[in-house]
Specification:
Helix content: over 70%
Order of helices and strands: HHHHEHHHHHHEH
Strand content: under 5%
Number of domains: 2
Radius of gyration: 21 Å
Oligomer: single chain
Length: about 270
């Protein structure tokens, strides 16, 4: 089986399908036409750009080229993870970057060095796609975890402060919101795992099958990737929630509610 190459005309035909989204927006008066058009343009530009970059990286194949690209991917994911939600706090961006970086690189290292065992470790064909998939899903968990933590603390501020006034420690007062935040961050991955292979065929498995790989071998790779994603997402979400907790509660067990600000107010 040979992979069917796509021409620019084929891509253009597929791009026309975005008109369906625009028609839905117009029919329901969602006022999303400009956002849809901008999102479509960004999709094309970003994917074409990364296609050219990866082509050059794969050809060069040196650690001092692969590693900076992996760092850049991680930083972008960290910045994106801090943009969700209506409330923010000083240090949120750093917390997002640290939690995503540590969890994703730790789990990716296990996958590359222990499970797949590639040599050399920086082989871009494996290192970049695997880290990219892990980063994308960890980003979702971290952003949802931080958002839910700040929302829970804000909406239940009276309970938190009452618990502290009655002698509870900062963790005793915050553990309820923290649990809800971690649960929210892990749900997307759990939902994905529940239907993978039955409702949806993941991108990596589909790509390998289209490239002529044995379906069973593609399934094994996808199982490994799903478990790596689940582990990184859980670790990243827990790390982000704990870092948020440390930012918003003082060592003398006070809830620093004043550090939480509306995102619109924070940007002014």
């Amino acid at each position: 089986m040979t992979l069917q190459n796509l021409s620019l005309w084929d891509v253009a035909i597929a791009a026309l399908l975005i008109v369906v989204n625009g028609a839905v927006s117009l029919a329901l008066k969602l006022d999303l036409e400009r956002k849809l058009a901008w999102a479509a343009v960004r999709t094309v530009v970003q994917l074409l750009a990364i296609g050219y970059v990866l082509g050059w990286v794969f050809q060069f194949d040196r650690w001092f080229v692969v590693l900076p690209l992996m760092v850049l991917m991680t930083l972008i994911a960290g910045f994106a993870g801090a943009q969700r939600g209506t409330r923010s706090y000083a240090g949120q961006r750093q917390d997002s970057i640290v939690s995503i970086w540590v969890s994703s690189w730790l789990v990716a290292a296990v996958g590359l060095f222990v499970v797949i065992r590639i040599r050399p470790w920086y082989e871009p064909q494996y290192a970049i796609p695997i880290l990219g998939m892990i980063l994308g899903n960890t980003l979702t968990g971290v952003s949802l975890g931080i958002e839910r933590m700040t929302e829970e603390l804000t909406s239940h501020r009276d309970r938190v402060e009452m618990a502290l006034a009655l002698g509870a420690t900062r963790w005793e007062a915050a553990q309820g919101p923290a649990r809800q935040a971690v649960r929210a961050g892990m749900i997307p991955t759990l939902n994905q795992m529940a239907v993978v292979g039955v409702v949806s065929l993941p991108g990596m498995m589909t790509g390998q099958v289209l490239a002529g790989q044995s379906p069973l071998q593609a399934v094994r790779y996808q199982i490994v990737i799903m478990f790596l994603i689940a582990a990184a997402s859980a670790l990243g979400t827990v790390g982000a929630v704990l870092l948020t907790y440390r930012r918003l509660f003082s060592a003398d067990h006070r809830f620093l509610a004043s550090r939480l600000v509306e995102r619109a107010a924070a940007s002014r």
